[in-house]
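Ticket closed. Logging final result for Phosphatidylglycerol lysyltransferase C-terminal domain-containing protein.
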Amino acid sequence: MISFKPLSIEDKELFNRFLNPYTFSTCEYSFTNLYLWKKGCNIEYAILNDTLIIKKVDFDHSSHFMQPIGYKKENLKELVDELIKYKEENDLDYLFKDVEEPFLLDLKEIYKDKLIIEKDRDNADYIYLKEDLIKLSGRKFHGKKNHYNAFIKKYQYKAVPITEDIIGDCMKAAKEWCHKNDCKGYILYELYGIQELLKNMNKLDFIGMAVYVDDKISAFTIGEKVNKDMAIIHIEKADSNIRGLYAYINKTFVEEYLNDVTYINREQDLGIDGLRKAKLAYNPNKIEMKYSVKTTS
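Final structure:
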């Protein structure tokens, strides 16, 4: 029987040893992201045959493994067979979710038509060109540029990096945002995750920025550079009553802190109509698909 243990901040070095050799295309395979959702997704892990195995529960309560990290292709069948056995004995809903295409190809090569593979559109990541988010040029960004200009013309504001001095302000802003947005389920777990990130910011690799409007914290964002080409925006919260504040923090954070990458990953929409509309409105360069995998038996 595979023995799983809950994720903790002390596991960062171990996880990075497995994760760092790879260039992933999605947001899932970042220790910061896993730590953010460790409670919300009941994230646990095990080491099996020198391979990192991560087990999760989604917000629809379905359970699954993420794709194995650090496997050798010649040992993949033995590894996956062991995971199939665990899945069947423990009634997991899926064999794998959060699967990227390279691992999917390795699976198909071994198992042929013995697996049920589906695109997971609600979980697909929105990938943007950094230059688009900074410049907001052309007709397709006309509305965003107008909101940005309206904000900088109307308000007295300052943007500052998130440091220990303003963690309390950020936590207060996160709580206020949560309570304004029916603070339960996914949103409540996100609040818990934000608090955990901020409490452990000196141990994690993220970058953050806060915006004060009329000397009151009104927005903050958290992101990280995961490789030389891509950064991920994990958190972005703002007072929606302040016109253009979301447009301002989106553009300014990338411009000031993430300007040395090519792509910005703004994560998935979870099938939420309003979130999908908002992410499409920024004209993604690519929607990076993830896949789910079930066994046929």
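The chain has ten helices and 14 strands. No further action required.
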